[in-house]
Amino acid sequence: MTLLDVSGLSTEFRTDEGVVQAVNDVDLTVEAGETVGIVGESGSGKSVTALSMLGLVDPPGYVTDGTVAFDGEDLRQASEKRLQEIRGNDIGMVFQDPMESLNPVLTVGEQIAEAARVHDRFGGEGVDWLERSLLGNFVPRRSARKRHPKSWAYAVEMMRQVGIPEPEQRATEYPHQFSGGMQQRAMIAMALVCEPDLLIADEPTTALDVTIEAQILDRLAELQAERGMGVLLITHDLGVVVETCDRVAVMYAGQIVEQGSVEDVFADPAHPYTRRLLDAIPDAKRGEGRLRAIEGNVPDLVDMPDACYFAPRCPHAHDACYEGVPDHESVGPDHVARCVLHREAGALPWEADGAGDTAMADGGDGTLDTEEGDR
Amino acid sequence: MSADTTPDAGTGTDASTDPLVETRGLKKQFPVESGLLSRLLARENEQVRAVDGVDLAIERGETVGLVGESGCGKSTFGETILGLLEPTDGEVWYDGERIDTASKARMRELRKQIQVIFQDPSASLNPRRRVRDIVRRPLEVHDIGDSRADRNRRVEELVERVGLSVDQLDRFPHEFSGGQQQRVAIARALAVEPDFIVADEPTSALDVSVQAQILNLLDDLQDEFGLTFLFITHDLSVVRYFCDRVAVMYLGEIMERGTTEEVFEHHQHPYTDALLEAIPTTDLAMRGNRAILEGDVPSPIDPPSGCKFRTRCPIADEGCAEPIEDREFSDSQVVHCRKRSPTEHAGSATPAEES
Fold first, then answer.
1. Are B181 and B136 in contact (CB under 8 A)?
2. CB 3.0-4.6 Å disulfide test: which of A109, A352, B24, B184 passes with B91?
3. How close does chain B come to A368, measured CA to CA in Å?
4. What is the tens place of the pLDDT at every residue in A274-311?
């Protein structure tokens, strides 16, 4: 069953310097029980894509086009009230920096319990009008455990499920008493409170050390399997994608440039950007020798030309690449790439002529795309 | 090029077989801020033991990678070597000279030879200065070059050398991308023609495609100028590409050190095993089969006795709570673990069986 079906989603930011097309004609699906990765470098539009789906883009950002069908319902047409019901209830979210997302003056248990109360999971323990109003700030909160025993017990249980040791004790502690890994577990517990069908995790482990990252990703995968959730995982780390995802969408300059199963995309990447991105990653388990850098810089998204966005950095670029933005072309079952060369992809030399050793020369040319014109 | 900037060439030649930089039992502790009450009661101050007895030698022309997770003390170690922090105990030697006790004036001279590149270039470049001024500043401070024109010429050479163009010199840092800003920071560090550079997470703030450019640049510059690097990073993959030798740090102590080959292919310390295991890899064949280290890093205020890793170690036993010694596995490989011994694993490429 297709849980989430995004089609033609576009978001722009109307800034003083011009219109930034942050998300450009994005098509994406997430099936129930499936993990889909959105991977890209900073500024590629992966986070804005997620925010756009949920109606969380604020001016100067505007979602300009596309449909976001969640469980058959178009979220773009939904009212704000309806979206609030869906967010947290049907779609859970985990963001990168847990310290930014947690309230420093409430205990962790209370915050997780509150997530359950907001959506009124336990009759009689919901958040009432008094608490929602400004006066709510003056309601004494100390006895949360006694006032909302069911929600509290549930929060403790959720903390146990995400792997926080001694949850009864830890629930009474404040976020600053938690390590980064434990904070992120608490965030995941909070996102899972209402048993969402879809979890959107935006760089959930980027702020964490590798040993802790491995623990969190592992736990997340277990929880997903238990609950049959769909997961949309946003990350810049291709390694994380391989470890956790079933399918992957590679984003560059606001567009999905390649999409397919992790096996297909990583074993036989069809887009030159994907290929070179994979090549640029140092690999502790293999690699020696020299890294192959991608020349130039990620382009500024103001007033992009009507051409392949990767062409200025692409070793295989030729005239056809500058004749309009390439469409998604099928390169295999459930594997698409936005590249005019997609058919020859396998036959192209992995490394373009003399492009391997370009750390020097490229700094200069790369700036042409980004620095000139707009500034 | 190092000869003309070294003020006391005498010690330089004498000590040329010694390591360029050496720390002996280096410790750095920070007092935990305590409330008025406990201070009045004259309670003993708790200390964060950020660096807890590190011996590390860096030979001329080599790159030593110092890796560890956040909070392990690797940056504190770098700052202590640079003289930005005063060590609590231990010694820092540079080119046969003890520098942790050196005078301020002497330290200032030494900064001509010892330079630093920080993690976040947007924070380490003055936003109100043009790139030309930023790169020229060290030349003025150390009175290098005969005239303003001469200095400007050197600035232009440097900027071109790091892959920027001369017509970008009159721009401000915010007009550059992260990778270009880091190139400016590298040009500034190179301006005084240093011998030794501490690079503290120089590519952590950059995207992978740009990271590769910067790493390749540093590699070229090292060959060209004969630089010695201490490369501090949390990213083991970067180390493998860039470093000759590696030291793995955990809670202020070096757990294992050796050549890059030894640490990556014949690693012996259970922590190194775990760290390497935890890195997500793009290799499809390695998918989904990794052992995951349990638990969190303990607090450096009250670290475990004996081996600091024992609370998370899969092979630790009671004996690990006793003080433990470094053990030499080869001329270059030293492992801080009592459970693994050189004879058992001699010649084996795979790390020990975990029991």
1. no
2. B24
3. 11
4. 988 888 887 766 656 677 778 777 787 887 888 888 88
